Amino acid sequence: MLSPVVNIGGERERVEVRKIFNCLFEHENNEELIHVWYEDLDGNIIYEKCTDALQQKRNMTYVELFRDYQRVWGGGEE
Description:
The structure is a single chain. By secondary structure, the protein is mainly beta. 9% of the residues lie in helices and 55% in strands. It is built from 1 helix and 6 strands, in the order βββββαβ. Strands 1, 2, 3, 4, 5 and 6 form a 6-stranded antiparallel β-sheet that branches. A hairpin with an 8-residue loop joins β4 and β5. It starts with a strand and ends with a strand. The model has no long low-confidence stretch (mean pLDDT 88).
């Protein structure tokens, strides 16, 4: 089975991923918004903070995402 592919930095780099999210999530306690891009093949969730002007990609585990955050916008399935 082929994995989905996302383009990072335009067409320069293509990355195989386990799942594409492209959703906004809000932290349950401090209302921090994050944009979740995808789950990589190692099981890490790749996201960026909405307030980060540099748009640095960060990662967390699937459990951390659904324990601490709630989806507020976007498609994809849990």
